[in-house]
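Exam revision sheet. Question 4 asks you to relate a sequence to its structure. Input first:
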Amino acid sequence: MQVGILGMGLLGAGLEGWVNSCEVLAGTVPFLPSSTPDPEAAILPANERRRSSDCVRWAVQVAQEAMAQSGLDPHEVATVFASSGGEMSVLDKLCRALATSERVISPTLFHQSVHNTAAGYWGIATSCQQSSTALSCYDDSCAAGLLEAVTYATIEARPVLFVAYDLPAPEPLNGARPIASAFATSLVLTSSSEPALATASVSLIAAQRNDVTEMPGHDLERLRLDNPAARLLPVLRALAIKGPHRVNMNVLDDQRLVVEIET
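Answer key, structure tokens:
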């Protein structure tokens, strides 16, 4: 399958926005993770932004960045949201409430606990009624989401917004499912017949030993391993460097999602 890439979004400590991060990804500027960003997610209506979780704001922030770069109307673009854990901080609050004698659950927290919360807030912000998918595949959520988005763009010949995000959970949940730092990223994909910033040929193959693409720097490789959404970093690096590049992403240990980038 071949798709075009019209826009990119990125957010993490030391990676605040796609434009600001290109030189870091390309290796021409050092990666210096600083304090964790607090995204504004300005596209959200004020009332929704006040009610939204950190996960929602991180996902929406990178989504609006990629959509702005693409020049497309978000109302007309389908979405795929991928997250390993989703609303873990909301789950923590619900579990703590259930552990009290009153066992009173906030209705707002309850409706924010589902895995498609970020997708729902994006739909509210953009009035988008196109197809929307929210999925999880543990450490391979990013690869599974990218495969879903590429397949949709190819079969339906329609643009798709792909968003991957994961944030650390509060303790003790983070002890059971460790994520070191927050990360979110996005791509706007379209059928290969349309002009694009880059093209990507995507295929699924059997795994070979030690053939997953890693990041060249120690700190960026640690980020890739520490956060499931950051598994897209080698693809983002290929987009930042320019030229032809091949990236292998793990899928369920015995398969690889091969992404061949041409910029």
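Marking note for examiners. The chain has ten helices and nine strands.
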